[in-house]
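re: ur msg from earlier - yeah i can do the magnesium ion complex, just paste it... oh wait u already did. ok heres what im feeding in:
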Amino acid sequence: MKNGESHSSEKLRSVAGTFKASGSITEIECIKSGHINDTYKITYSNGDRVINYVLQRINDSVFSDPIKIMENIEAVTKHIKKKYENFGWDIETVMFPLRTMDDTTYYQDSEGSYWRMYSYIKGGICYDSAPNTAVVRSVGRAFGLFQMQLSDFPASELNITIPDFHNTVKRFDDLANAAHRAKDNPVLKPRVTKAADLLFSLISYRKLAFTLEVAKKAGILPLRVTHNDTKCNNVMLDENTNESLAVIDLDTVMPGLCAHDFGDAVRSGANNAAEDERDFSKVYLDLEKFEAFSEGFIPALDHNITETEYKTLAVGAPVIALELSARFATDYLNGDRYFKTNYPEHNLDRARSQMVLTVDMMKKLDKMEHIVKLLQ
Ligand code: GN1
Ligand code: MG
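and the outut:
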């Protein structure tokens, strides 16, 4: 079975049956919001009770070693759980994978695919874009708490599941290589022509790509345990109160920079528009949402980061928006092999939109830095 292909109900029933969920399956629904894994909502009924679970097939062309991902997830969720039990801390930030009948956190099917299952939180909602400042504040608090709760977890113990994931300089090298290959490929060559203006914009911002990478290599910024995919829709909120219920999608938990998590969440949650918006007049950083996000994130850190890290939080946002623009453009030039797309120019549109956001954020960087400073 290829990544992104839909699975038959029979197949899903048999995979779900290997996990310790009780009852019989009454409904299966495909959830389409992520760009990488295949996700399904499975409804069970057990007497009068209806219980929902999320079943996921891990994309094995993005994650070459799914077992290493599950080891990371188990290690960080256990760490947070232990702390919670010892200190009575709020455990709202974490979800535990369900175990299989063989007591593992994943199941490998006969075709070699890896699957995992989570409880589906009733009354929980994930927003692709933040509809208001209350939502973005809660998202900030959830990611800030997550960072704080893992601040004493030794980052070096984690597996590096995708090397150089937020190495923005390397992402630019990948872009150059993809453009080079595409120009010699008759099928992909027209894409180079179509993306030419975007490629020039990206190159003109290349200096920005070095900002965090150089500081990281110089040891000025410490490597922490970071989530690395802090999109707005990776926090589950209570649909009535907007309180955060859990941080989800821990696939990319790895050593990283606090500014990456802050920045990625801002580029997703404080963008006035959707990630792939084509009407660029709608694409800008909403400063009110930025402030609300910071008000959630920064106090939740409880002073667990250094003075230098505070100084780099704001610039993390344009760095990650730029990095993602380069990643979407790279995938477009590679023929859409990484991110799921809904139409042929989808990756190009996403890349353009993230570039517009980067430019707007750079104009507002002083204001963003000022807001962070007042809260630290
Ligand atoms: C992917 O899996 P999902 O949709 O949460 C991607 C992120 C990107 C994001 C852009 C493993 O996240 O890095 O920022 O799309 N995840 C991976 O929407 O590459
Ligand atoms: Mg993900």
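cool cool. The longest strand covers residues 38-46. ping me if u need the other ligands too
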